[in-house]
Amino acid sequence: MHIPQAIKYEAANETVKKVYDDIKATRQTDYINNIWLYLANDPALLKRTWESVKEVMAPGGALDPLTKELVYLAVSISNNCEYCIASHSSAAASKGMTPEIFGELMSIVGMANETNRLVAGYRVPTDEIFAPQNK
To answer: Among residues of the chain, what percentage have pLDDT more than 90?
Structure first.
């Protein structure tokens, strides 16, 4: 079984180096997160994923940068992704997340997960009033 290894800049091919350079330029840092170092085992996947993340998480749009990070963090918590929880907690904190905001976010994540599972278990039908044609 092949166990993927981190692809450091010095060992990367030109496609990967271009993505790494774009990550550095976009984030204004010399640091390349581990996710990118491991995704570089598949250069096409690395490039596609970076382009998507860069587009979705870019400033601008209807959601402010902190809200985007909080949504990403909430999904990461629900999916139990330790790596993403750590990286997006850090990013959210850098964009203004306080301990109070994190506490409220955790209350919402916990409640949503609880009620989602209750609704799924009870097989609760969706109320007709919530249907798009009734809006």
So the answer is: 94
pTM for the structure as a whole = 0.90
To 10 degrees, what angle do helices 65-78 and 43-57 make? 130
Instruction: List pLDDT tens digits, range 15-63.
Output: 999 999 999 999 999 999 999 999 999 999 999 999 999 999 999 999 9
In a domain, 134, yes or no: no
Judge if 52 and 77 occupy the same domain.
no
pLDDT given at position 125:
95
User: Do 28 and 52 reside in the same domain of the chain?
Assistant: yes
83 Cα distance to chain centroid? 10
Burial (CB < 10 A; 0-12, 13-18, 19+), residue 115, is exposed
The domain that contains 13 carries what CATH number? 1.20.1290.10
Query: Is 1 in the same domain as 52?
Result: yes
